[in-house]
Amino acid sequence: METVELVLDTSGGSISDLTAELRRFCRGRGDGLVNAYCPHATAALVLMETGAGSDQDLLDWLRDQLPRDDRYRHRHGSAGHGADHLLPALLGSSVTVPVVAGEPLLGTWQSLLLVDTNSDNNRRRLRLSFLPTT
Amino acid sequence: METVELVLDTSGGSISDLTAELRRFCRGRGDGLVNAYCPHATAALVLMETGAGSDQDLLDWLRDQLPRDDRYRHRHGSAGHGADHLLPALLGSSVTVPVVAGEPLLGTWQSLLLVDTNSDNNRRRLRLSFLPTT
Amino acid sequence: METVELVLDTSGGSISDLTAELRRFCRGRGDGLVNAYCPHATAALVLMETGAGSDQDLLDWLRDQLPRDDRYRHRHGSAGHGADHLLPALLGSSVTVPVVAGEPLLGTWQSLLLVDTNSDNNRRRLRLSFLPTT
Question: Which of B16, B130, B117 lies closest to B66, judged by CA?
Fold first, then answer.
């Protein structure tokens, strides 16, 4: 099977590290590209370092740039929820990583992170797909 | 044919919904990934919700973050046109979506939007390509 | 060989034009998609116009939006280096371009640029991968 959908519990916070899931999916698949896709309009996928403060730096930047106030025309959900709807446009809904011999070629400091500042929904889906190059 | 180029008339506004075109292209193609690509240096492709205010929220955010004034070194075209040239870097020129049984797996609230704040050019091109996973 | 890694010397500045490398890699490969991937946590890949001021406009925008001061929790490296770690999230680590008859279908004004504001590291890697559509 070359494509799978995972269900994630994001109640632990606004950033979830999905690197282990990405590696597990690629194992045994040979050479190609892996695509991680987030089918939600208020969450995003990024590659960045985690564990040395940068993940929180990103959340701080987003809070400054997309204040959770009443400026948004989108008015459903919690106060400031309109901000969440700009995340996919600014950060992106998918990430593509080369794979060689079943191993995604992430750099030493790259992790796959789901950014999800929308606390109204703690059940998220992630689709992983593999495309062979050979 | 696994890749096609569409010509779009964007005189209707700064955001064009291309979701129907994406679905039509995928129909009958089985499993894979579809890539939508925008070959312009002053327009971008994003996945986000439309119809509930968020598309206008994005344009407001861009106007705040990329003011259409004379701060830009790029000086061709209309006043503030330098701002348009930063759109592809900030938002991205392509979008990749998994496809199963000829259906792109967009989330319920995800639409494919062309963001094009450059009113000097109302004829835009969009390339759609399909990569089979099986 | 459908995937290669290049080693780049980025001592020349914060933006490196990799368009020639992208074209060279695609030559003779037929139809498909080419993926350029940056395995670094403090650099990004974008498609944009270069040579008419927009590349410097992007660096100016980044300096305004991600000031190189002590606001970041990430404190390794030079002053303000925490800013570099947000680049991949905001701009993206990879770019995908359709290829027809061995030619990447970049628009007239699109170039592939590596954005790397981290002067602590002048040796960067770039991976290019080709996926056939037929």
Answer: B117
